Here is the input.
Amino acid sequence: MMGPAHSLSGAAAWLGVGAAAAAAGHAMPWPVLVVGALICAGAALAPDLDHKSATISRAFGPISRLLCEIVDKLSYAVYKATRTSSDPRRTGGHRTLTHTWVWAVMIGGGCSAAAIWGGRWAVLAILFVHLVLAVEGLLWRAARVSSDVLVWLLGATSAWILAGVLDKPGNGSNWLFDGPGQEYLWLGLPIVLGALVHDIGDALTVSGCPILWPIPIAGKRWYALGPPKPMRFRAGSWVELKVLMPVFMLAGGVGGAAALGFI
Here is the structure.
C-alpha cells in the first residue's frame, strides 16, 4: 500500500486497541490514546525503510535517504544468506527483512529499551521521529508542498508538548508498566503494531509479504503471505484509495469514540 493508507491503518489499529482496552475495563488515558495513535501512524511507514522511493526516504532529507540505501543493502544481504532454492532470485531488499515480524519486534523492543535507559531525550527522539512520519503520512498533501524544516519543527514541537502532557500524574507515562523506572516502556507497543499493520496491508497487494520469516512455508523461507490472487490489488489502485482508506478512517473514528467512552 501507499504511505497515506499505511498511516491511516496504523492510527486506526491503535484506536481499535484503545477501544478493546476500554471494553476490558482498562481504558487508556486520553494522552496515551492520542500519542499511541500518532506513533502507530508513523511506525506504519517505517518498514519501507528498504525502499529509496518510499515516503520515509524523504522524511529526514539526506539522512533518511542514506539510511534507506543502507537498510536496502542489509535486507538484500540477509535475503541472499537465508533464502532457500525455492525462493525467487532478487536484485534488491524491498519487502524482505523490514517486512517481517522479527523486524517489528526488534524495532519496538529497541525503542522500549531506549526509552527506559536513555531517559527523557530518548523519549523525545522516539516521539519526534514518529510524529514527523505521522505528519508525512496523515497530512501528506500539506507535507509535500511544505518545507522539510517546517515539518521537522512541527514534529519537534509536538514531541515536546506531548511528552510534557504524558509526564503529568495520571496521564499515562507509566501506562501498563507502572514499576519503578518503567515509564514509557509501552512506547514500543504502537511501534510493533504499526510495523505489523504495514506488513498486513502489503500482504493484501499483488506481491504479498513475507511476514512470517524465517519460518519456512511450502519450502520457502521468504514465503509471501496474502489472500488468494484474485482478492489482491495493486498499490495505489482504486481499491486502496476509494475503499480501504475510507474504511480505515471510519474504523479509527469508531475506535477512538469507543476508547474515550462516547459509545
